[in-house]
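User: Show me an example of a complex going from sequences to structure tokens.

Assistant: Sure. Here are the input components:
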Amino acid sequence: MATPNVPLWEVFIRSRNGLAHKHVGSLHAADSTLALQAARDIYTRRGEGLSIWVVPSSAIIASDPSEKGMMFEPAESKIYRHPTFYEVPDEVGHM
Amino acid sequence: MTAALMDEQMTVANIEVTETPLVLYTLRRADDALILGHRLSEWCGHAPMLEEDMALANMGLDLLGQARELYSCAAKVEGKDNDEDKLAYLRDVRQYRNLLLVEHPNGDFAQTMVRQFLYAAFADLYWRAMMKSTDSTLAAIAAKSEKESAYHLRHSSEWIIRLGDGTEESHARAQSAIDHLWSYTGEMFEADDGERGLIEAGIAIDAAALRPQWLKMVTGIVSEATLVLPTSDWMQQGGRGGRHSEHLGHLLSELQSMQRTFPGAAW
């Protein structure tokens, strides 16, 4: 099942109880209409979603894995940015 | 196994169906859905791309679901010992009443899609109209089936447009499929005397009245696809009366092989 020269699309689904569209996978389709239909056929067969976005994979600008030291390591030593130093009053309940 | 024993098993295996107008009417629609669903299932693992493999199987499963509900409905109306499984597995080819169009072999992808398109364009209108049936079971089946047919129509229409207005090769294949299948579309709009009684009672709808709308929709998509409809009005007939092409017997021998070999087998 080769899919020559057929563009790749990323699929995002908003679930029944979710507020945000979440990335669920990718697929091949010739154009946006067929991509949306294929997303429906592949990723919502078990009632997973109420809304679908498809985005050309080529439109996604990704960070470079070889730069992950510069990009992400500086944040690892700054634990004071995590909201774990506050006492949450019981009355607030689950946050 | 001796030939005589085999004959005996086959004789025992075929069920009798008391074909009152409503039983026959429901069976005909059930057979359409089962046979077309089975044809689509034959693509499983063979479609031109993985995405379309899933799409074809999904549509096949929609149709199988419609067939099950319609068979159960027919069995209930008949009120004998039959059920959905017996109706699907234990009738021979002459007892099947589906449209000749749906038993047509898959051919290439264009032929499968044209067949799907011609049928779905009808089924969508048909189920929408049947939602007003005075028979509450049929009206409920129609409400569920209409949403499925609407998607089948959308999906097949998009493909017809792309195949027709695609490459020289895809255009030629789509046009040849339309030319080949066109004479099988007339049967969708037929009604015999039994069905006319049901139409008068408000249980069935007059399919012939849907033809202008169907033709308008089909013409619109086909011309957007830069394809042309044949001008011939001559139409094939026979499926509704149990007279089938040679293809249906082969399809049934595969579909029914398990129940014919091991009658009553369940798992």
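The lines above are the inputs; the final block is the predicted structure for all two components together. Residues 8-86 of chain A form a domain with the Ubiquitin-like (UB roll) fold (CATH 3.10.20.520).
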